[in-house]
Amino acid sequence: SLHRIKASGLKLQLCTNETQATRENFVRKLRAMGFDISVAEVTAPAPAACRLLRERGLRPHLLVHDDLVPEFAEIDKTNPNCVVLGDAAENFTYANLNEAFRVLIGMEKPVLISLGRGRYYKETDGLKLDVGAYMKALEYACDVQAEVVGKPAKSFFESALAELGVPPEQAIMIGDDIVSDVGGAQRCGMRALQVRTGKYRPSDENHPHVKPDAYVNNLAEAVDIILQQL
Amino acid sequence: SLHRIKASGLKLQLCTNETQATRENFVRKLRAMGFDISVAEVTAPAPAACRLLRERGLRPHLLVHDDLVPEFAEIDKTNPNCVVLGDAAENFTYANLNEAFRVLIGMEKPVLISLGRGRYYKETDGLKLDVGAYMKALEYACDVQAEVVGKPAKSFFESALAELGVPPEQAIMIGDDIVSDVGGAQRCGMRALQVRTGKYRPSDENHPHVKPDAYVNNLAEAVDIILQQL
Fold first, then answer.
1. Helix runs in B8-153, H state only
2. pLDDT at B66 > cutoff 90
3. Chain B residues lying within 8 Å of A20, measured CB to CB
């Protein structure tokens, strides 16, 4: 399906909330599975956060996964004036959480940037608390609201559109998550297809707030429909 | 001051949110400082939680400080059907938090009991996240609301009154925390004096919701006033 999109001349951007690896590693894994994808075709929370940090002159204290740290290599991290929180996994230690908290509470107006708001996810050895839970802990302790980079943030889809160089009405989002994918893309002015695979649940079709522009059975069918209308 | 209260024949109950030690250890420390206090004169969150667990037939999975575990010695902890969260300090590891989360998310209706809702506190080596922050993390991940045992919960002050065997209108609370002490005691029907020591801040006198029945400069003055009115 990816190949057919590219062969048709359409531009493509993969939007992922992956924050346990750099885009380079993420792309390497996809290429190993046979997907023809380049780093420039991936929008991920860490690069979006880096853009935000640069724009606002913010120097982060990082509480992220070790494998994500290289994404912030070019960013000045001396004398931090904000905290960037990702799915730090084993780095979510009592000491690291207290340290991130102390950086925040020491600021006149704490700035907390979170690379997502997920509640939990499943790994081979069981369910794990996701970044959103730790975000809530720090929000409560510091009485602040985090700025969330990543789906479903409008700014995240806007930066994907900026990469593509197209306005929202000329773009279409295909995704399996009713809120993070469909809701986020629509709020940004894009049309959105929900695939009935992956995270999709039949109950999504009765979601109280979000309704995709159309449902498709899978990615191949989404591509069929899009290419037919060109 | 404690001695004068006791000598007058008034009953006394110390209400603490301490959850890093058993009441036995807490009382041992106070006695070492010269205070004539017995375990029966202390109301603390863990014994209040034990009462609640027994009343509702709940078997806790504990995420608490090692030193607090003996408070739950008599409680059946097999095949847990709730999680009890205290200020676990070094026990707030990634693995322990995931484990508590898995116990909760595995229940049809997760029951989370928190021994407080504090945001943070200060120790000699710096500020630390308190139990409330971890409570918020688990609340968000499981989409539940914790039941808070400890100040300012109404049930906590009620159990102190039950220990004293007096109705709220015959009791008076003396404390330094405008919300946890004064607010909680008043919600329970007690009169409440705020001392201008400890956690007291001048801004407390403009608190939007809570107004003590009177201010006193310190505990000794509070006792003077109370004894004069006997």
1. 23-32, 45-56, 94-105, 131-142
2. yes
3. none
- For residue A132, the chain B residues in CB contact (below 8 A) are 140-141
Q: Which CATH class is domain B1-10+165-228?
A: alpha beta
Q: What stretch(es) of chain B map to CATH 3.40.50.1000?
A: 1-10+165-228, 46-148
pLDDT tens-place string over residues A90-136: 999 999 999 999 999 999 999 999 999 989 988 888 899 999 999 99
Q: Which two tokens stand for residue A194?
A: 């929900």
CA distance B92 to chain A (A): 6
CA distance A55 to A61: 17
Torsion of CA A85, A90, A91, A93, to 10 degrees: 110
Domain B46-148 part of CATH 3.40.50.1000:
yes
Residues of A in contact with B89 (CB under 8 A): 94
Does B134 sit within 8 Å of A98, measured CB to CB?
Answer: no
Q: Tell me the longest C-alpha to C-alpha distance in chain A.
A: 57
Pairing state between β B147-148 and B214-216: unpaired
Q: Is A107 on the interface with B (CB under 8 A)?
A: no
Residue type, B222: A
Calculate the alpha carbon distances from B187 to A169, B12, B18, B165, B218 in Å.
Answer: 55, 19, 21, 18, 23
The answer to whether the CB atoms of B126 and A102 lie below 8 A apart is: yes
Q: A6 to chain B, minimum CA–CA distance in Å?
A: 38
Backbone dihedral region of A20: left (phi > 0), alpha (psi from -120 to 50 degrees) or beta? alpha
- Average pLDDT value for residue range A211-225: 96
Selecting from B102, B120, B128 the residue whose C-beta is nearest the C-beta of A127 gives B102
B148 forms beta bridges with: B114
* Segment 108-147 of chain B within 8 Å of chain A by CB: 119-120, 126-130, 132-134, 136-143
At residue B202 the predicted structure's pLDDT band, cuts being 50, 70 and 90, is very high
Largest CA distance in chain B: 57
Q: Is A66 on the interface with B (CB under 8 A)?
A: no
The burial class, CB within 10 Å (0-12 / 13-18 / 19+), for A129 is: buried
In whole angstroms, what is the distance from residue A135 CA to residue A155 CA? Answer: 19
Of the candidates A94, A105, A129, the beta carbon closest to that of B137 is on A129
